[in-house]
Amino acid sequence: MASQRALAVGAILLMTGGLPLLLPTTANACSCMSFATPEEAVSVSSTIFLGTPTEKTSDGFEDTYLFDVSRVYKGDVASVTSVGTLANGNGCGTSYVVGTEQLMFLSAPYDVDAEYEGHSCGPYTGTDFDVQKTVEAVYGAGYVPETGGTPSVAVYVDKTAVVGGVAVVAVLAGLSWFGWKRRRRA
What we know:
The chain is α+β, with helices and mostly antiparallel strands. The protein has two domains: 2-24 and 160-185; 38-157, CATH 2.40.50.120. The protein contains four helices and five strands; from the N terminus they run H-H-E-E-E-E-E-H-H. A five-stranded mixed barrel has the order 1-2-3-5-4.
């Protein structure tokens, strides 16, 4: 009986101690590149636009902003678009000030559930330069985006964490059922 109890306690400790291994984690390191010229520094992003964040939501892991886009320099962007970034500066995440127009250097989404992903790494050469002037020298005056696009700012649910949580509950329920059956036989 004591060995069964020790086995059950050991299984529960193994499961609860192993729980963090089932949940997704985020690396917190961020390393930004420096480029030789301002032209090279502004050319690495897949999308560049001038826009104003109008709304922000967060699930604690990811912040998502809606932007009113006033001018597009690189890429195909609607007049309203969403930009996601990892919250709290994790993995080069950043934040934007709602209501303040900004020149955005973005990439295709990788870690976020939005149309574009923003990073804290911007055009950097190790020297001061006029970023807006350099963007216009490389890409011209840009264009006003067509009206359209109404992305929503939604809270992202990490399906991996949900599946891991369900698996843990199922295992614990199975262990409880097993223990109940064993006690009932005795």
